[in-house]
Design a protein that fits this description.
Elements (H helix, E strand, L loop, with lengths): L3 H16 L19 H15 L4 H5 L10 H10 L4 H10 L8 H10 L18 H31 L5 H12 L3 H35 L2
Helix pairs in contact: 1-2, 1-6, 4-5, 4-9, 7-8, 7-9
């Protein structure tokens, strides 16, 4: 069997080739996140290193961790949004998401040497992160802005092209339509509210269910 250093040297040489980096710049402690490695890069480093060392990958793959997010995509997305304004949403999001292992070149070499997955002891950022307060309010204002401004302007443009020769041109026509408050402007607000409700409801429902379960546990 090759020495520990030989495994690490092989992995570093393969990583340098896959990532297009000088091998001299790499150390065994470089992690995948530090190297900005994509998932496909990680796979190639593992597979090519295993081939170079004559190691069978199947036992390693069978002992790799399986990551399971504990809620639907809609719920996780909704909780991420609510995390911008709710500490309860942030706490629940942290419990439901996962933070994958951040493999290092040394841990990859150790996996190849032992024939089973070796945890580096490092973690990547969670797959789902809460919005900042600024990002939440930016997202909150986007549907109303699109529906209350974009939709009326688009419809007004179509109408203007078909019928009008108004003094001041298109801008005057849009201003006149907005002043009258008719057409899509009246439709835009309720539609925007529905869009926001659909996106926020899964997270709110999950928070309500979590609070209910906590109350029931306290009564045990």
């Amino acid at each position: 069997m090759a020495s520990e250093d030989a495994y690490e040297q092989t992995v570093m040489a393969v990583a340098a080739d896959v990532l297009g980096l000088p091998e001299a710049r790499l150390t065994p402690e470089h992690s995948m996140s530090m190297l900005k490695a994509r998932h496909i890069d990680y796979q190639l480093i593992f597979e090519r290193s295993a081939a170079a060392l004559g190691v069978e990958m199947t036992p390693i793959i069978e002992t790799m961790p399986i990551y399971t997010v504990k809620a639907s995509d809609a719920t996780m997305s909704s909780l991420s949004m609510l995390g911008g304004v709710s500490s309860a949403a942030r706490a629940l999001l942290a419990r439901l998401t996962v933070a994958p292992v951040d493999d290092t070149l040394a841990s990859i070499a150790a996996s190849l040497r032992t024939g089973r997955f070796v945890d580096s002891g490092r973690k990547q950022p969670p797959l789902h992160k809460p919005y900042s307060l600024r990002a939440f309010f930016s997202w909150l204002l986007l549907p109303p802005a699109v529906l209350l401004v974009g939709l009326p302007v688009g419809v007004a443009w179509l109408e203007f092209r078909q019928c009008c020769e108004m003094s001041g041109g298109f801008a005057a026509y849009v201003a006149e339509r907005a002043w009258r408050g008719d057409g899509p402007i009246l439709v835009g607000l309720p539609v925007a509210i529905v869009v926001l409700a659909v996106q926020l409801w899964p997270g709110l429902a999950s928070l309500r269910e979590d609070a209910r379960l906590r109350r029931e546990r306290q009564d045990l």
